[in-house]
Specification:
56% of the residues lie in helices and 7% in strands. The chain is α+β, with helices and mostly antiparallel strands and 217 residues long.
Amino acid sequence: MGKAAHTTAMDKATTAAAIAAERRELADFFEALTPAQWEAPSLCAGWRVREVVAHMSMGFRHPTARVLRELVKARGSLHRMTDSLARRDAAAHPDTALAGFLRTHAHHPWTPPIGGLAAALGHDVVHGLDVTVALGLDREVPEDRLRIVLDAVDPRAFRVFGTDLTGVRLCADDLDWSFGTGASLYGRGQDLLLVAYGRSLPAGRLRGDEVHRFVTA
């Protein structure tokens, strides 16, 4: 095995281990939520915490053939399809089962259409933050995992998430990371990750001249 191939294999193994750790920790975290917190709104518009957690394991539990059938029913809309499945699964399973799916499938090799394993880790991290930030709970994503996801931010996915960073440079103030060009928008790396994935954040988490574009109305 050449040096480049060896490095790639090590990177994949590191990311896979980070995914498994994130899923297990989030499962523990979700299982400790109160019934009221499960019913609370998340950062994902229209979804409670329950729908977010149900969605997080969708790729593990539903065969590709079923997902494609659901996509046809949704007339080709990825958003309508994921919304329908999340609401259905949230209604069909109790809290403990929804959280447990993440632990059971900690090593599942699922990846989204864009980005590979790093994007799979991003899927877990971002949706975990959709819950914790909305609930006002300060769970800090371990830096090694956060760096993998931040370094993999991909403009090709911006259209999917409705991200508009025109004229903005994201600048983490807790680690050495920036993205984009333009007026600086400052915040914790994990908050800027949410911005990169099209989320609006509660006031007080970001700083900069363009901050009004990225906070909850």
